[in-house]
Each structure stands twice: as C-alpha cells, then as structure tokens.
Design brief:
This protein is α+β, with helices and mostly antiparallel strands. It folds into two domains: 358 residues, Cytochrome p450, CATH 1.10.630; 87 residues, Alpha-Beta Plaits (2-Layer Sandwich). 46% of the residues lie in helices and 12% in strands. The chain has 20 helices and 17 strands. The strands form six sheets. It has a five-stranded mixed sheet. Strand 1 and strand 2 form a beta hairpin. Helix 8 runs antiparallel to helix 13, helix 10 crosses helix 11 and helix 13 packs across helix 15. Bound molecules: protoporphyrin IX containing FE. The site of protoporphyrin IX containing FE has 25 residues, from helix 6, helix 13 and helix 17.
Length: 544
C-alpha cells in the first residue's frame, strides 16, 4: 500500500539510496546523457522503486512502479511542483506563459485549453485529419519510399494545427514553419535544466525560432481582428477567453499557449505514429489483425468519423502497446518544494523527483514478459494495465495529459486511412528499430525508411505468385512473409482452389485469380486460405 504524507507520520529521516559512481562536478550526467533509459533502468534494478542520482550538482530521485507513481502523481503542486521542473520550456512558451506563470494563472491557462481538446470540437476533428492524410498521400502513386518519422512529423503538424488553430493558420503554414518547429524541438535538451540560456548554437536557434514564430502568430491575430466573421477554433477560443477576474489573455500569452499546445501534441504524436507503423511493419500477425478490423469496420469506402473511431479496439490496443514500449516522454519531473515522503523514505525539499513511464512499463511483475510486443495485454481477460498508475504514458493525476483523447483520435484516424490504402515494409529493419535518446521527447531514430505499396497492387501480386506453380523458388511478398509453391507436389490450382470458391477463381488453363478485390481481403489471409485448402500441401506460407 502506498504511504503518503497524509496517511502516516514518518519518524526516521531516511534518505533514498544513492547510485554509486558519481563523478566530481558532473555526477551521473555522462552516463545519464548517453542513454537516459538504460541508466534509469539500471537504477531501478540496483536500488528498487526509489533511488537517487546526480546531474551536475542537482540531486534527482527516480521513483518507478505503480505505488511510487501514485505517490508522485497525487502529490499536491505545493509539494511537488511541475512548473519549477519545466522552466526549460520558458524560452519556448514565453515568460509568464503556462509553466512560467504563477500557479493560479497557470491553472486557468491550462483550463482554457480543455474545451478544445475534448468533447464537442473533437467530432469535427476526425474529418479534418482524414482530409490531411488523404492530401499527404494523394501523390504517392503505387509504390515508393518515405522516412517515416519525417512523414509523421509533417502530417501531425498539419493535423494538429488545422484542428486546433483553424483553416487560415493551417493554410499559412509553410516550410519556414516546419523549420521553426524543428529548431524548437532541438532546443529541448537536458542541458537546459541547468543552463537554459547557455550560448550554444542549439539554444540560439531555439530562441530565434521562437521569436519568428511569435511574429507569425501575432500577424494572424492582427488579421483576425479585422474580420467581421468569427472563427470557431482554439485560436478564437483563446482570443475570447478570460481569466477569473474578467481580464483577457495578452497577445504574448495567446502566442505562447498556441505554441505550447501544438508543441505538446506535435512531437509526441508524430513519434507514436512512427513507432506504431514500425511495430506493425515488423509483425505480420498484428498487422493482419488490425487490417481485418479496419476492413471489416470501415469497408472499402466507409466514412471515418468520430464515432466510428471509437469502435476499433484492436488498433487501440496496438497503439497502447506502442505507448507502453515507446512512451515519448520517458521521464517526468517535479521539484520538491516541501519534504516528500514515500514509504520509509524522505526526499528533502530542493531535490527533484522523477517518474519514468518507460521504466515503469517494463516491470515484469506488472507487465509479464515486458519486452514482448503484446497488444492482447489489454484484453478483458488479462487487463494488465488495470492496476492504477501502472500504464502512465499520458502521465496521471491533476497533470495528466489534457490532449490524450485528441492524440488517440489523431492516431486512429491516421491509421484508418493509411493502412487501408497501403502496405508498409521496413527498408533496413535493424537501423529502423532504435529510439533516439538524444532528444527529451524520444522518437524513433531517423532515418527510419519504409517502402510502401498500394494494397491493390499487393493483392494482384499475390494472385500472380499463387497462379504460377513453376515458381518453385520462394516468392518474397512485400509483406513480411514468404509464399512457397512446390512444383513436385502441385497438381494444378484447379483442384486445390475449388475448396475456397468465394476466394479464388481458376480458369481452364489452371491460372488462379484472387476474387474480391476489395482491400478487406488482405494478402496474408488469402495466402493462408490457399495454404489451408491445397489438398497436396504444395503451398507453404512462412512468416519472416
Ligand atoms: C501520444 C501523444 C502524447 C503523449 C504520449 C503525451 C504525454 C503527456 C504526458 C506524460 C503529460 C504529463 C506531463 C507531466 O506530468 O509532467 C502530458 C501533459 C500534457 N499534454 Fe500530452 N501527450 C501527448 C499528446 C498531446 C496532445 C496531442 C496535446 C494537445 C494538443 C497534449 C497536451 C498536453 C498538455 C496541455 C499537457 C499539460 C497538462 C497539465 O499539466 O495540466 N498532449 N502529455
């Protein structure tokens, strides 16, 4: 059971155990900086659910596991202060905005964002996202290659800005805007915890980018002021919003909050989208299940709506499992303002405490076989995430991600379109399956290139490959499995395929055609049916 300040008076002033190996001045900075996840995992394995390390002079206490997470997330702001720890965002969001604002102002500013990230406005977002995805892939053709992360970054900046900021902001976006965002993201660096304004090129580019973005945003605010017709988007909601005392947000605050919202949702969602496709591309079985669900649910041209996106549990579980293994925020930080107690330990005021979604998600007692990608964990029968504060990719408590529903909507809408149009194959699997820990928001290491092929073409290829029994050599389908037809055994398709007449048609010459060209009959399923119904067992399907 969790022991919190309020439940028990702690008598011994026992400090959390410390990690060995701190260097003079640097502390554990070098090890941590090299790979923060490896380091935190090592700390958990060495010291357990609470342990201390040092970044330069700063003492940090890492807390992991459901009980420690609960204590972390439920502590009041006056004791564990989020703002203090996120001061590194001040150069990006602006002075006096969100994490730099006094607590009562910060709470009100965050509250002003809530109406646009929930409920009613969400219903319109699904269409906007679908439209953006369709536009992004309009010129893809039958086949090609993309860098997955770059693609997702571009797509999600369009989807989130279009949904949250409205049409005119979306259509004024250009390459300059993308570059500004890139420089802001690069400016979020662990070094900024200690020296936020060090004259490094990366921080100089960050500050320049922020100033330029404010110019652009302020220009749009001014244009809107001259229009008689009012927009109905987050931008307008912020223009119209008032504090409890009736005063309005300043242009500087609006700019900062818009940056903050887009920023909070952009890189986190892009990384998750890229990881989702990377994981699915490596796992034909999971991909087949997702395709089956999407094809069944949406059909060929089924409309992707807010409601229909709520009814695809297989894809939802896949995204949840991606977020378990690859949470973009691998650690969350609070500054201890008043001594904080957890079980038998006291963390002294002045230190920082961290929770780590990534480490907590890999505790075998909570998620058995934790490295295994297994979306079935969330099934009704298993419910491995049922224990409170075990699955914390979106954080928890008062500061739980306010954009979580919007993020899930975006991800589901994106894949409801992409996966029904194209299949994806990793070009260099080994290189494309790594996290980039050099950024505070962890994403797949770029480049992570994939080859895409229009699904209809894949189906035609399957028909061809199965129709030619002299293809004794194995045929590599672009889908993560191999079809082998043994010429010695094969007695002609006309015999074996009659068992599945609704799926295959054989002409007089023995050539086979796959029926039902609609995408819901996916390649793997067809191939497995062929294997199943071949009486001579000439067809073999091997998952790669
Ligand atoms: C997969 C995508 C996302 C992930 C994994 C994610 C994760 C998180 C986490 C872990 C926190 C808590 C931080 C803490 O406790 O210190 C958080 C907070 C927040 N997120 Fe997200 N987020 C995502 C997408 C979004 C989106 C799309 C938006 C908005 C458009 C958004 C807006 C926010 C805001 C405003 C907060 C601050 C909440 C508060 O302090 O009251 N996030 N997010």
């Amino acid at each position: 059971m969790t022991t919190t300040n309020t439940e028990k008076t702690i008598s011994p002033d026992q400090q959390p155990p410390k990690m060995p190996g701190a260097l003079p001045l640097l502390g554990h900075m070098l090890e941590f900086g090299k790979n923060p996840f490896d380091y935190m995992m090592r700390l958990r394995n060495t010291l357990g659910e609470i342990g201390e390390f040092r970044m330069f002079h700063q003492k940090m206490v890492l807390m992991t596991g459901p009980e420690a997470n609960e204590a972390f997330f439920r502590a009041p702001d006056a004791q564990l202060d989020q703002s203090q720890a996120y001061k590194i965002m001040t150069p990006i969001f602006g002075k006096g905005v969100v994490f730099d604002a006094p607590p009562h102002k910060k709470d009100q500013q965050l509250k002003m964002l809530m109406p646009v990230l929930r409920d009613k406005p969400m219903r319109g977002y699904a269409q906007v996202i679908v439209q953006e995805v369709e536009e992004m892939i309009a010129n893809w053709g039958d086949t090609g290659e993309i860098d997955l992360l770059e693609f997702m970054k571009e797509l999600t900046i369009y989807t989130s800005s279009h949904c949250l900021l409205g049409d005119e902001f979306r259509y004024e976006l250009n390459e300059e805007f993308a570059k500004i965002y890139h420089d802001l993201e690069k400016g979020v660096n662990p070094l900024a915890f200690v020296f936020p304004y060090l004259p490094l090129p990366v921080f100089r580019r960050r500050d320049k980018a922020r100033a330029r973005l404010q110019e652009l945003v302020t220009g749009i605010i001014a244009k809107r002021a001259q229009k008689t017709e009012k927009s109905e988007d987050a931008f307008q909601l912020l223009i119209d919003a008032t504090y409890d005392d009736g005063s309005s947000l300043s242009a500087h605050e609006i700019t900062g909050m818009l940056i903050g919202t887009i920023f909070a949702g952009h890189h986190t969602t892009a990384g998750t989208a890229a990881w989702t496709l990377l994981e699915l591309a490596r796992r034909p079985e999971n991909m087949a299940q997702v395709l089956d669900e999407l094809d069944t649910h949406f059909g060929v041209d089924g409309e992707v709506t807010f409601q229909s996106l709520r009814e695809i549990p297989v894809l939802e579980s896949v995204i949840k499992e991606v977020l378990r293994l690859h949470p973009p925020l691998i650690f969350l930080i609070r500054k201890v303002m008043q001594d904080f107690h957890f079980k038998d330990y006291t963390v002294k005021a002045g230190k920082y405490v961290c929770a780590s979604p990534r480490v907590s998600h890999r505790i075998a007692e909570v998620f058995p076989d934790p490295e295994k990608f297994d979306p079935d964990r969330y099934s009704d029968a298993r419910q491995e995430d049922a224990k409170p504060y075990s699955w914390i990719a979106f954080g928890g408590g008062k500061h739980k991600c306010s954009g979580n529903a919007f993020a899930m909507l975006q991800l589901k809408a994106i894949f409801s379109i992409l996966l029904r149009r194209y299949t994806f194959e990793l070009i260099n699997e080994k290189d494309s399956y790594q996290d980039d820990f050099t950024q505070m928001v962890v994403q797949p290491l770029s480049p992570c290139r994939v080859r895409y092929v229009k699904r209809k073409n894949i189906n035609e290829q399957a028909a061809e490959s199965i129709a030619q029994p002299d293809g004794q050599e194995s045929r590599q389908a672009d889908y993560g499995f191999t079809i082998q037809i043994d010429k010695e055994l094969c007695q002609g398709h006309a015999t074996c395929m009659t068992e599945a007449p609704e799926l295959f048609q054989v002409d007089d010459a023995g050539n086979l055609t796959v029926l039902q060209e609609q995408p819901q009959l996916d390649l793997l399923f067809k191939a497995q049916q062929a294997e199943k119904y071949c009486p001579t067992k000439a067809i073999k399907i091997k998952l790669n």
